[in-house]
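Note to self: keep these together.
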Amino acid sequence: MLTGTASWGFDALVAAADRAAGELGLRGLAQIAGGRYRPRHLRSVAFLAPEELRAQLARRPLVITHGGMGLLGDAMRAGCRIVAVPRRGRPSRRHPANDQWAFLQRLARLQPIVACATPAELPQVLAGILRDPGPEPAYRLESDVPAILRRFLATTAGQEGRAPISADGRERRTDGPDPA
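Structure:
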């Protein structure tokens, strides 16, 4: 399965996945967004509703996607084997996440994601996975973001003259003992 949600599509990735599907005898579904390339070997849709996307991911053992964190997160939560090909380009005001390579490389060091540098490499990468799929991916999905936000809020609240925030998110009194 190939998926992408950028309104302008990712034609190079869709074409590479379609070519690989033809060469390797793979079936799948391509979400092509606003792209111009129409797959010949993969079924395609423009967009899937979020609940349909999650349902499709739950049924797919392998997902080929761009390097955006939303789709990667959905595929990880679904337990899919992931091959990600980053969008490459200069970030701009309209497309601030236009270059996903640095993010994808870092994520692939932390999670069992195959980072494929360019769409041209995709058929070879997929052939390797078909020969030796390796163990089922086990993603670590815990997050330390809530703790980071609590620490940040506690620090900034005190600097701005407001009462600091306690670890449980409540304002901490500074004129007496901290309520239990």
